[in-house]
Description:
Elements: E1 5-9, E2 15-20, H1 26-35, H2 51-59, E3 66-73, E4 76-85, E5 94-101, H3 110-125, E6 129-135, H4 139-147, E7 151-161, E8 167-176
Parallel strand pairs: 5-6
Antiparallel strand pairs: 1-2, 2-3, 3-4, 4-5, 6-8, 7-8
Amino acid sequence: xxxxxKTGILKDGTVVxxxxxxxxDRDKLRDFFNRVDENDLMFLRTDVRDPKVIDEWVKHIDxxxxxxxxxxxxxxxxxxxxxxxxxxxxxxxxxxxxxxxAKEYQNKGLATLLVNELVDLAVEFGxxxxxxxxxxxxxxxxxxxxxxxFAAKAVFEDLVKDPSGKRGDLVVMVCDVQGRDRRx
Length: 184
Ligand SMILES: CC(C)(COP(=O)(O)OP(=O)(O)OC[C@H]1O[C@@H](n2cnc3c(N)ncnc32)[C@H](O)[C@@H]1OP(=O)(O)O)[C@@H](O)C(=O)NCCC(=O)NCCS
């Protein structure tokens, strides 16, 4: 899987490289997360602006636990999508998907490329369902996951907080991938 290396074309014609993150990406990832808007990082569970967090990620890559897919243009990371899996337990057939795209590359189809690629990977990994947790007031994110085949299954009102402390609703979207064929 680490050999995953593809190109994709954005709506404006920009050619992007999609590939698995490797341990050599530490500095590029630090640079990427420092460029991403703070509000666009609120759904993450770790402080990706802390260099130690990135150090830990690149030191402990295990593609069967977390598959980190990055998008690059001219050697610069412009998007990151991750597929999180569990090897044991009652969620071992599930994957969680997260995606973030740099502001200047948003609305060009990049997240759609990344999420579709993770759906294909989930099929290869033999997963059955994918789950995404999204702020209800994030229409672009909801649109991306809908296009990839996810459907809203539950809304938790007033559950999450943005960086300013304002509460919001969380929508859980699920995509059935069991028995699916990879896209051509
Ligand atoms: C969500 C996010 C990843 C989308 O990335 P992106 O590369 O801009 O996404 P895409 O360009 O592939 O698709 C965006 C879609 O949203 C649609 N969209 C954008 N703003 C919208 C709005 N206000 N209302 C409805 N749809 C909207 C676009 O039209 C596009 O759909 P289309 O291609 O059918 O026209 C990006 O906004 C981001 O990084 N947000 C912060 C992180 C986040 O919320 N992640 C989701 C939690 S896992």
